[in-house]
Specification:
With about 120 residues, the chain is mostly helical. It contains six helices and no strands. It has one domain (about 1-110).
Length: about 120
């Protein structure tokens, strides 16, 4: 059942993004930023954790999940370190994903040949 809910919730998030691309004049970059901010806001009000509990990776993999993770880890860091956690929390939350993206980009750059447009 978790696979079905993950597919449905993750698919619904992607459908909303596609509708925004097709029906509005928003650029994809602005839509992505809106999704991250939406994840932060929903987690700030305590509404995103129940979605994660229901859908698992269907809710944590899209960009709303990245915003959720940033807000959650920032709140944890503030509870542990005080106000300093506002600055350290987002970095600890996003470090694994950012490091993976950088290393993947480096590996691809080493194996492929760049082309000019």
């Amino acid at each position: 059942m978790i696979f079905i809910m993950s597919f449905l919730i993750g698919g619904l998030i992607c459908v909303v993004g596609q509708i925004l691309i097709d029906k509005t004049k928003m650029t994809p970059a602005r839509i992505l930023v809106c999704f991250v901010v939406l994840g932060v806001v929903l987690e700030g009000f305590g509404l995103y954790q129940p979605i994660v509990d229901l859908a698992g990776c269907g809710a944590t993999v899209p960009l709303t999940g990245f915003g959720f993770n940033l807000a959650k880890e920032t709140a944890n860091a503030v509870n542990e370190q005080g106000w300093l956690g506002i600055f350290t929390g987002p970095f600890s939350a996003g470090s694994a994903g950012i490091s993976t993206a950088l290393m993947s980009g480096l590996c691809v750059a080493l194996v492929t040949k760049s082309k000019t447009k």
